[in-house]
């Protein structure tokens, strides 16, 4: 198949989880023998408008058409959404002018390269639907979050979702396919030597290390982790916390106010290829999601739990929250420990349990790795996409065009 993957709100490459998702899915569709043209976001003038990346033909577009948008900064992760007049006008622009512009770009790619089908990631404001309407090609909507265009929902012949919580009202269940999340099991794997190098770099020595990887958004639950760590450190003062990712400053300040900053190392962002080294440097990993901190997440849930799978793939014991779709991936007391969202006391107890019971921690990590290998690779997800796209193409063309 020849695929146009429209993800105009996602920069590729980048250290954000959305970027990892788009890149890995496209890369593994190519591994299955398909051609992929990716329409992604251009966030800097220095970026090329076109680049071939691991076989993916990446076409980048500015939000401001001729320049990066002066209103929205890609690096402002977790900023509070404004509801004033300027923001309302900007959102209207994204779902109309920008969607049409990006849709025309995608449509031209489809025509020029005779592409068979369009996949639109839901944060593309309807650009994929526009391209589908302009070219007559079938479109499949990928729902990782809830912020999709009504036009995209109506235009899509199939809706691929990672949890039913993300589905907009009125979507016929006959068009919905629930797919599993994924992780690069070749990149994320146990590696004691790389972990040791990271521990030496930050002076962690032989301490028990609790790790977190992410962008420190409010609903990621890092505040609850830091609150829980105060009690953990009272019982186990030798424990250290390795916090990996950008936009950590508020949490670093919180650790200082609580008097636990000496136990914390905030590394800042690291490249995607280096993330496994930091995961392997930790003994216990945490993903304490708390959707109550975000109106959007409170209503729709958390989407694809990428970091959870990355932890598991490195054979690490983890503590995370009992939410869908995490509960589909993590079996409590078997491949990890699940705690209620926002429950600081339960989070503290789970951490202390794994700190004190190293045999349990090791066994959980080993079982987690086996579970991921059996079901959650990117190649397995790409095969799910392949089946759905082939079906959509057959319905449109009456045959397996391009397959």
Task: Give the topology, please.
Layout: E1 2-7, H1 17-31, E2 35-41, E3 50-53, E4 56-61, H2 85-113, E5 117-121, H3 127-135, E6 139-143, H4 150-155, E7 158-161, E8 176-178, H5 192-201, E9 209-213, H6 222-235, E10 240-244, H7 249-257, E11 264-268, H8 275-281, E12 284-287, H9 295-300, H10 306-313, E13 318-321, H11 326-329, E14 337-339, H12 344-356, H13 358-375, H14 378-397
Parallel strand pairs: 1-2, 1-5, 2-4, 5-6, 6-7, 7-8, 9-10, 9-12, 10-11, 12-13, 13-14
Antiparallel strand pairs: 3-4
Care to describe what's here?
The chain is α/β, with parallel strands linked by helices and 403 residues long. It folds into two domains: 2-182 and 377-397, Rossmann fold; 192-375, Glycogen Phosphorylase B (Rossmann fold), CATH 3.40.50.2000. The chain has 14 helices and 14 strands. It has helices at residues 17-31, 85-113, 127-135, 150-155, 192-201, 222-235, 249-257, 275-281, 295-300, 306-313, 326-329, 344-356, 358-375, 378-397, and strands at 2-7, 35-41, 50-53, 56-61, 117-121, 139-143, 158-161, 176-178, 209-213, 240-244, 264-268, 284-287, 318-321, 337-339. The strands form two sheets. An eight-stranded mixed beta sheet has the order 3-4-2-1-5-6-7-8, with helices on both faces. Strand 3 and strand 4 form a beta hairpin. Helix 1 packs across helix 14 and helix 2 (85-113) packs parallel to helix 3. It starts with a strand and ends in a 6-residue tail after the last helix. The mean pLDDT is 92.
């Amino acid at each position: 198949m020849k695929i146009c993957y429209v993800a105009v709100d996602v920069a590729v490459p980048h250290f954000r989880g959305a970027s990892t998702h788009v890149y890995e899915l496209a890369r593994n569709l190519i591994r299955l023998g398909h051609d992929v043209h990716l329409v992604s976001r251009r966030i800097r003038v220095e970026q090329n408008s076109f680049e071939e990346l691991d076989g993916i033909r990446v076409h980048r577009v500015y939000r401001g058409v001729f320049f990066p948008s002066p209103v929205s900064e890609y690096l402002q992760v977790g900023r509070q959404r404004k509801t004033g007049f300027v923001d309302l006008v900007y959102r209207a622009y994204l779902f109309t002018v920008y969607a049409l512009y990006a849709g025309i770009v995608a449509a031209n790619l489809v025509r020029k390269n005779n592409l068979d089908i369009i996949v639109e990631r839901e944060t593309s404001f309807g650009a994929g639907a526009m391209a589908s309407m302009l070219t007559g090609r079938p479109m499949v909507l990928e729902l990782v979050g809830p912020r999709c265009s009504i036009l995209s929902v109506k235009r899509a012949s199939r809706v691929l979702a990672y949890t039913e919580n993300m589905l907009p009202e009125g979507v016929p269940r006959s068009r919905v396919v629930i797919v599993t999340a994924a992780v690069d099991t070749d990149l994320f794997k146990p590696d004691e030597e790389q972990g040791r190098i990271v521990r030496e770099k930050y002076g962690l020595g032989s301490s028990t290390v609790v790790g977190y990887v992410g962008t420190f958004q409010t609903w990621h639950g890092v505040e609850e982790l830091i609150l829980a760590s105060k009690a953990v450190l009272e019982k186990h003062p030798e424990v250290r916390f390795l916090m990996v990712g950008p936009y950590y400053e508020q949490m670093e300040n919180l650790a200082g106010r609580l008097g636990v900053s000496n136990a914390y190392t905030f590394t800042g962002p690291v490249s995607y290829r280096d993330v496994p080294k930091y995961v392997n440097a930790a003994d216990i990993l945490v993903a304490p999601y708390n959707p109550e901190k975000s109106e959007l997440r409170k209503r729709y849930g958390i989407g694809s739990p990428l970091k959870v799978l990355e932890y598991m793939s490195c054979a690490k014991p983890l503590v995370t929250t009992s939410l869908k779709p995490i509960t589909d991936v993590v079996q409590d007391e078997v491949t990890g420990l699940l705690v209620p969202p926002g429950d600081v006391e339960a989070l503290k107890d789970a951490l202390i349990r794994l700190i004190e019971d190293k045999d349990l921690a090791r066994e959980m990590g080993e079982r987690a790795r086996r579970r991921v290998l059996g079901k959650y690779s990117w190649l397995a997800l790409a095969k799910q996409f392949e089946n759905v796209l082939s079906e959509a193409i057959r319905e449109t063309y009456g045959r397996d065009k391009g397959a």
